[in-house]
Design goal:
By secondary structure, the chain is α/β, with parallel strands linked by helices. The chain has two domains: 206 residues, Isopropylmalate Dehydrogenase, CATH 3.40.718.10; 134 residues, Isopropylmalate Dehydrogenase. The protein has 13 helices and twelve strands. Bound molecules: nicotinamide-adenine-dinucleotide, 3-isopropylmalic acid (IPM) and magnesium ion (MG).
Length: 353
């Protein structure tokens, strides 16, 4: 294949992990005989500083030109600590998702055998946990009507039947390819929008007789996820709940720096870690690049290039097994491997296996 990739490094640790993702992409393309062309574009605080816009028109055009976007992270303490700021880096990420129609965010949560003992959760609870959260990404509170004035503010959690149906179809397709168990997570005991989710899901469930559909309130799901994560196969949920539950899910895997995602829908798909720009780690060469690197694996798999994806996954597993890990998952008194060293080791492995 001849890949055209838009690279959006963003802010904080973004550029450091982005570089590792690009190197892995190039190594896989070289090994499997694909051509790849990159075009870099601005997003987030970096884009605000240079253009005043967190998602400039030129960045949008670059995304449309590309077959896939490799996105890293946006966000900056200057804005985090200023609730009055009118333009914010995160608006760039949201504009990208909305303008590209990326309504389905696929967030797999898996364990790595060699990291199981490092989780604050007991081994017998998390061993074998393997689920995927299908997060609706272009609706709900993130995009509903907002109001902010003086001492009153609100966000509207609006969903339409169409928005719910299309994300449920994605979720059922995943459940069909996996262990055939779909959990619809909502707050239907309180929220009108959740009641629409549950109604639509109940209407659709009979169309998928081989799949078990169950319904769970989000508060219960938050508990169940760390009490009994193996219960879950596919979770489908609205934008806000999916955001929160997947950060929680990262504790099962062992680090925020391990969870990739794919955002898909109408236009160019985006492959992005679930974590943020971790500003405190910027420039320190300590951010784990694996979430970004596994996002590249998801990119190849999106194009049905499963061997390419598997080569990346094998290299990541080998690095973790060999203790080639960034500090947050390194064993006590283990060697130091930074963002660059972990990335380079994985690239070498891909080249030589
Ligand atoms: N997709 C995105 O671009 C995205 C996602 C979440 C947060 N943000 C933004 O990022 C900024 C910081 O937010 P935050 O501190 O709440 O979340 P964060 O995900 O940036 O960091 C939270 C914690 O997760 C861990 N972590 C994150 N990335 C890691 C990595 N690669 N390797 C190892 N550990 C890692 C660190 O312990 C860190 O303290 C904010 O501006 C926020 O808006 C952006
Ligand atoms: C930065 C923010 C807008 C974003 C979200 O909430 O979607 C992030 O937390 C994520 O999970 O990708
Ligand atoms: Mg998040």
């Amino acid at each position: 294949m001849n890949f055209k990739i838009a690279v959006l490094p963003g802010d904080g640790i973004g550029p450091e992990i982005s570089a590792q993702g690009v190197d892995v992409m190039s190594a896989v393309c070289e090994r499997f005989g694909h051509d790849v062309e990159y075009s870099y574009a601005l997003c987030g605080a970096d884009a605000i500083d240079r253009t005043g816009d967190p998602f400039p028109e030129e960045t949008f055009r670059t995304c449309l030109w590309a077959d896939a976007v490799l996105f890293s992270a946006v966000g900056d303490p200057r804005f985090d600590n200023d609730p009055t700021a009118k333009v914010r880096p995160e608006q760039g990420l949201l504009a990208m998702r909305k303008k590209l129609g990326l309504f389905a965010n696929i967030r797999p949560v898996e364990t790595f055998d060699c990291l199981i003992h490092m989780s604050p959760l007991r081994k017998e609870i998390i061993e074998g946990a393997d689920f995927v959260c299908i997060r609706e990404l272009t609706g709900g509170m993130y995009f509903g009507e907002k109001f902010e004035r003086d001492d009153r503010a609100y966000d509207t959690n609006a969903y339409t039947r169409n928005e719910i149906e299309r994300i449920l179809r994605v979720a059922y397709a995943y459940a069909g390819r996996r262990r055939k168990h779909l959990t619809v997570v909502d707050k239907a005991n309180v929220l009108a929008s959740s009641r629409l989710w549950r109604k639509v899901a109940q209407e659709m469930a009979p169309q998928y007789p081989d799949i078990t559909t169950d319904y769970m309130y989000v508060d219960n799901a938050a508990m169940r996820m760390i009490q009994d994560p193996r219960f879950f196969d596919v979770i489908v949920t609205e934008n806000t709940f999916g955001d929160i539950l997947t950060d929680e899910g990262s504790v099962i895997s062992g680090s925020m720096g391990l969870l990739p995602s794919a955002s898909t829908g109408e236009k160019t798909p985006v492959f992005e870690p679930i974590h943020g720009s971790w500003p405190q780690a910027k420039g320190k060469n300590i951010a784990n690049p694996i979430a970004q690197i596994l996002s590249v694996a998801m990119l190849f798999e999106h194009f049905c290039l499963t061997e390419e994806g598997a080569a990346i996954r094998q290299a990541v597993n080998a690095a973790l097994d060999a203790n080639v890990r960034t500090p947050e998952i390194q064993i006590p008194d283990g060697p130091f491997y930074g963002t660059r060293e972990v990335g380079a080791w994985i690239v070498d492995y891909i080249r030589n296996h």
